[in-house]
Structure formats: C-alpha cells, structure tokens
C-alpha cells in the first residue's frame, strides 16, 4: 500500500485501500477497526500457509517471528525508538493494561481519565482503584469538542497526587483528535 507521501497526503485516495471506508467514516480503531486490502490479503496468505504447514510447524513459527520483528522495527522507526522498546499485543486494551498494572501504585495515588475513554480502560481503572485504594478523577474533554481547550481542561484536572493521565489520541466515541504535545506541556506546567 502506498504511504501518505506517495499519495500526496490525499486522504480520499488513501481511504480507497480500506474497503469498509469507501462509503463511510469510522472512528473506533482500537481493537476492531477496518483493515486495508493489503492487510487482509497478508492475513489470508499467513493463515493459508499455517493451514498447509500446520500451526505449530517450525516454518510457521519462524515466519511469525520474522514478521513480528519487521513490524516492531517499522513501528520503532516511525516513533524514533529502538525495536526492543516495542511490544505487540492482541488489543489496545491489553497494551493499556500492561502499562496500568505495571506501575507501583500506592494508596492515595490519583489516576486521571477523560470522560471519553473506552470502557476497557474505565473498567481497568476501577479495578486498580478497588485493589490499590487509588482515586480516579475524570475530566470532561467531551465539552471541548469543536470548541474549548482540551489541553488546559486536562491540565487543570491534574492534582498533586496524580500519578498518571490516561487519554486517547483519537477519541473512540467522537473522533476528536487530542493535541498530545500541548497536553503534555500543559500537564508539565501544572505539575511544576
């Protein structure tokens, strides 16, 4: 599939590679978003090879390992990090759970969510609160849709014991794109 530079940043041309997007808009790209045709073809090809050789064949395992390494390398290059810092998971919720449960939470710590987070994140936060006696704060970014300043809204909700701010770059329920760089700067100013 051509990258954005090859398409001249033509969103309509890019969307044509996604059969499900040819006649609609779709904003929930977490765990079950539409795939471009090239990805569907690669999945079918991989499953066909797996069925021909057997799912536990060394050749299948070697190919899966190679493809995972290539994917980690491509993601790392895009993010400007090393491939060993990239973990592939089966879903966004699993990836978020790794980060959420990996922190050494202490009683009285605070976790800040937006009011537009996916139910999988909200449920994990509620369980963290129950197990570790942390407080969950919620700020309204929904109220900033098409107006307002989500960066300041989020930063103003940060408290001295806020240990982590959890937010989505693209909100699953509205499609709003949050300005991550501005949010990080505003939160750092608030916390200093």
What does this structure look like?
The chain is mainly alpha-helical and 192 residues long. It has seven helices and three strands, in the order ααααβαβαβα. It has helices spanning 11-15, 37-53, 58-79, 92-101, 119-132, 150-157, 180-191; strands at 110-114, 135-139, 162-166. Strands 2-1-3 form a three-stranded parallel sheet. Strand 1 (110-114), helix 5 and strand 2 (135-139) form a beta-alpha-beta unit. Helix 4 packs parallel to helix 5 and helix 6 (150-157) runs parallel beside helix 7 (180-191). The longest helix is centred in the middle third of the chain and has 22 residues, at 58-79. The radius of gyration is 20 Å and the shape is globular. 13% of the residues are buried.
Write the layout of secondary structure elements.
Blueprint: H1 11-15, H2 37-53, H3 58-79, H4 92-101, E1 110-114, H5 119-132, E2 135-139, H6 150-157, E3 162-166, H7 180-191
Parallel strand pairs: 1-2, 1-3
Helix pairs in contact: 4-5, 6-7
Task: Describe, in short, the structure shown.
With 192 residues, the protein is mainly alpha-helical.
């Amino acid at each position: 599939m051509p990258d954005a530079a090859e398409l001249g940043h033509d969103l309509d041309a890019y969307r044509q590679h996604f059969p499900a997007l040819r006649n609609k808009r779709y904003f929930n790209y977490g765990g079950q978003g539409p795939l471009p045709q090239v990805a569907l073809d690669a999945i079918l090809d991989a499953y066909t090879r797996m069925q021909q050789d057997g799912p536990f064949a060394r050749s299948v395992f070697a190919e899966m390992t190679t493809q995972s390494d290539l994917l980690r390398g491509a993601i790392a290059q895009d993010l400007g990090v090393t491939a060993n810092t990239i973990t592939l998971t089966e879903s966004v919720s699993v990836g978020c759970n790794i980060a959420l449960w990996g922190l050494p939470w202490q009683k009285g710590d605070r976790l800040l969510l937006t009011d537009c987070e996916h139910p999988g994140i909200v449920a994990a936060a509620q369980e963290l609160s129950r197990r570790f006696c942390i407080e969950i704060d919620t700020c309204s970014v929904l109220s900033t849709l098409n107006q307002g300043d989500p960066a300041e809204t989020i930063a103003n909700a940060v408290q001295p014991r806020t240990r982590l701010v959890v937010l989505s770059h693209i909100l699953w329920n509205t499609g709003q794109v949050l300005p991550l760089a501005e949010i990080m700067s505003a939160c750092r100013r608030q916390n200093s």
